[in-house]
From TrEMBL:
Record's keyword annotation contains Disulfide bond: yes
Protein family according to the UniProt entry: Belongs to the MnmA/TRMU family.
InterPro entries: MnmA-like (IPR004506), MnmA-like_C (IPR046885), MnmA-like_central (IPR046884), MnmA-like_central_sf (IPR023382), Rossmann-like_a/b/a_fold (IPR014729)
One GO MF term: tRNA-uridine 2-sulfurtransferase activity
Superkingdom of source: Bacteria
Domain tRNA-specific 2-thiouridylase MnmA-like C-terminal, residue spans: 283-357
A single BP term in Gene Ontology: tRNA wobble position uridine thiolation
Ligand binding (ATP): 6-13, 32, 125
Residues carrying the site annotation Interaction with tRNA: 126, 341
The encoding gene: mnmA
Matches recorded under CDD domains: MnmA_TRMU-like
Protein name: tRNA-specific 2-thiouridylase MnmA
Length: 368
């Protein structure tokens, strides 16, 4: 097969490209330039998006012995990831830009261009596996090493995208084995730290970065009954579950700490309350998709597991498609679920699908 290897400049994508070549595929490496102003992306040994990462990727490609190119995806990245991030925060939601990048850049824009150029598949360094069922349907599954499993951020992939996706690291028992293999191959990135945080916020100050783009306007911090307990300098700076930085200035009547329960951008209000009020009995989203074959009867409840963060544990739940939404009810309440997050639904190790959370139902009713 002709395989386009997406090379971020990190150790995982370098080893993935090398394994694709070892498997006998005709491999070409490509690095995605996601900004025309390198200073707007985080620097350091992160394996994600900067000029130094591009150079690391090229050195690895040279050692593997494959052609290497840099493709400018900066305009698409700004529109589909950066602008989406700002819009979601402006709407009071908490987005996941890495998941959105996988959905709209690596497995939409990149795959689309790869297929147009005659490639059969795109290979990445994600820790996940693609299996084929008895009827020939492609399925997305967790990686062998659950500690490094990245199937959550790939939950947005469709059946068509899975048909052209390759994850050479999916069956690897540990990240240590990948690093050892990289060292044995002579890759300079063998000990390079993993990527982290948000690549397009240079200094890691998300609050300050958003304030420059959304604007900061003073608003009220209120309890669930509407009692004003403080003020803030911009609702966009808060996210559900946050405890630090509320600056209420005095203890609640019950003496217990307060957490952000809701962000209301329309009236620039932040709602706070006790920790138990963060417990969510149900969540739902109209923006849902299936990672491969859809359930036979999605309008009838089925048992599953749901994961709401990349590094969270999956929890037992039931799910159903009702009134145009994927509605998920965990067996026990979930804590700190924010609109804008992604809920990924699993059947065992298989990723069934996902939704962007639009609304939640609290397990603890607000006081009358």
């Amino acid at each position: 097969m002709r395989v386009l290897a997406a090379m971020s400049g990190g150790v995982d994508s370098a080893v993935a490209a090398a394994r694709a070549k070892d498997a006998g595929h005709d491999v070409v490496g490509v690095h995605l330039a996601l900004s025309r102003m390198p200073g707007t992306l985080r620097t350091g040994a992160r394996g994600c998006c900067t000029i130094e990462d591009s150079m690391d990727a090229q050195r690895a490609a040279n050692l593997i012995g494959i052609p290497y190119y840099v493709w400018d995806f900066s305009e698409r990245f700004k529109a589909d990831v950066v602008d989406d991030f700002v819009a979601e925060y402006s709407a009071g939601r908490t987005p996941n830009p890495c998941l959105r990048c996988n959905e709209r850049i690596k497995f939409a824009a990149l795959l689309e261009k790869a297929l147009a150029l005659g490639f059969d598949a795109v290979a990445t360094g994600h820790y996940a596996t693609v299996l084929t069922d008895a009827d020939g349907n492609r399925e997305l599954h967790r990686a062998a090493a659950w500690a490094k499993d990245q199937s959550y951020v790939l939950g947005v992939l469709t059946a068509e995208q899975l048909a052209h996706s390759m994850f050479p690291l999916g069956t690897t028992p540990s990240k240590a084995e990948v690093r050892a293999e990289a060292a044995a191959r002579g890759f300079s990135v063998a000990s390079k730290p993993d990527s982290h945080d948000i690549c397009f916020i240079p200094d890691g100050d998300t609050r300050g970065w958003l304030a420059e783009r959304v604007g900061a306007e003073q608003g009220e911090i209120v309890e669930r009954d509407g009692t004003v307990v403080g003020t803030h300098q911009g609702a966009h700076a808060f996210t559900v579950g946050q405890r630090r930085g509320l600056s209420i200035g005095h203890p609640a009547p019950d003496g217990r700490p307060r957490f952000v329960l809701e962000v209301r951008p329309k009236d620039n209000t932040v709602v706070v309350g006790p920790k138990e009020a963060l417990d969510i009995a149900q969540l739902a989203g109209s923006r849902f998709s299936w990672a491969g074959r859809a359930p036979e009867h999605p309008e009838s409840e089925w048992a599953c597991e749901v994961q709401i963060r990349a590094h969270a544990d999956p929890v037992p739940a039931t799910a159903v498609v009702r009134d145009g939404e994927l509605v998920i009810t965990p067996d026990a309440p979930l804590g700190g679920v924010a609109p804008g997050q992604s809920a990924v639904v699993y059947l065992g190790t298989r990723v069934l699908g996902q939704c962007t959370i639009d609304r939640t139902v609290s397990a603890v009713p607000a006081p009358a």
